[in-house]
Design a protein that fits this description.
The protein is of the alpha/beta class. The protein folds into three domains: 206 residues, 3-Layer(aba) Sandwich (Rossmann fold); 146 residues, HAD superfamily/HAD-like (Rossmann fold); 203 residues, Aminopeptidase (3-Layer(aba) Sandwich). The strands form three sheets. Strands 10, 11, 12, 13, 14, 15, 16, 17 and 18 form a nine-stranded mixed β-sheet that branches. A hairpin with a 2-residue loop joins strand 12 and strand 13. It is globular. The model has no long low-confidence stretch (mean pLDDT 91).
Amino acid sequence: MHDADAETSYRSALAVSRAIARASDAAPHPRRLEIVLGGNCNVDFLKPGLEAALWADGVTTAVRSTAYDDWVGAALEQKESADAWVIWLSSAAWSRYSQLRPDPPVATIGAAVRAIRQTGAGVVVILPEPDPAEVDPFSPFVQWREELVSRLRAAIHEHAVLIDPTSLLAQCAPGWSDFRYWIAAKCPWSPDAATRLGALCGHTLARLGQPRVRAVVVDLDDTLWGGIVGELGAGGVMLDPLGEGAPFLVLQRFLKDLGERGIMLCVATKNDFADAASVFEQRAEMILKPEDFLRFEANWDSKAESVRRIALALNLDRSAICFLDNSEHERAEMRQLLPGVVVPELPAEPGDRIRFLHESRLFLKPVVRDDDLTRVQSYRADADRERHQHAAPDRDSYLAGLSMHLTARPLERGALGRPAELVQKTNQFNLTNHRHSEKRLLEIVEAPGVYAYAFDLSDTFGEAGTIGVVVALPAPAPDGLWLEIDTFVMSCRVINRTVERAMFAHLTEWARARDVRGIRGYYTPSARNQLAADFYLSVGLARAATPTGEAQDSLIFESVEPRAPDHRVATVRSAQVPVR
């Protein structure tokens, strides 16, 4: 259920929101967010667009609002339990539509945002929009708002995702701001403009935990440059930055920026390799360089086959790959041969493509974490590992030569962002398919007796960052204390290196130190996690019967006093954790 108008029209969004309420009861998405709306104005007009955008991104929502202009008190008192807050700070509301230039309590706002973050909830703050009086570029309201925005940024940028609405308003129809909306409903924007804003907030929240696109595979001819290099030669393709080549260079800059924010770039082109490489070698105008691409498929195979090889090499689900190509035929073939790959309908006019890609919201990345910045280097190191594997006489020698070191870090308040992201987005090695939010993880880890760790991996070829999360909950039984595995996820980047066995070994050692009687694990089958189906058996747990009357959607495995399984990780380091 996705109506494009629901992100631009209040009436359409309201209709979709009502349909979503019915559909979510019958068939909810597996990912669910509880969201609180607050602000200094009527925030209810954000709700339909927010719900429609999140549903389109595969998220079921429960949205509620604080009392009018009471969000600060609710936040400081921590009265609301939610996965995320959206806070709308409108300049028109503060100025009463250009009547006043007050000094809002920025310090108190900062304290309220920090209080929300302490609960584990994410925070999105909509910064003040241009005041209605700013139709006069020399109005005193311009300086007032700019100084206010600057102070707000300084107070909350480390604790919240900030949305500057200025660019969004440029997309809205004239009349987005009208005194009548304020008088009638205390909403500073028109309902349609507020719907657009709500939709942007929805996509932002969806991307906080689960990026839509993790890799972009791009064509070359008439996509990264104008013309066909095999016919025109490297010197003949269009790359004039002040002429017809400009739109192609703008796309290159867009892609290079994505790469620098952790989205992997690859090429799939029907060309001789020498022809394709010649443009990079001979044309100084090129913004993208060969080293910006993780995989460079230049051949005469179908592009679907090239993308299939790229997905295999990067160990990515095809739904995380976006394919950009100017050819309508190539796009249609990709959709047919590799369903699931994201294939935007790129405009025929090169100058229209960047706006189209921005407005698609496919590439929103509200937060860039350290792991994002090192991901590309980690994948490059995989090529070195592959060469090392080919040179090794056998697999054990290969794994031993990697000299892997696993660091187990306890999940703690203030450091749950990356672990929550991994839990929410991992599909292939995800035993229970739980999609805990940061707030839910915080609730879990602060309970007594819980095993909750994130795992960082490094080896001879570099740092892989945070690659796994394991959470096990205490389960008292007549024969003693058991641990039940709630979450066991591991990045597909490190599959087949016995790392998952080392993670389980850490769990068993932790359990033994606390006189835990046994460990029980759950495997919930899905379309994507079959490779993990036999994991529990491989580490010594046995299949157990499902208790009478309980749902049969998960398989149960358990073992009394399980032993640590063997693995090829050189060391497993663990921080000292107080017994809770």
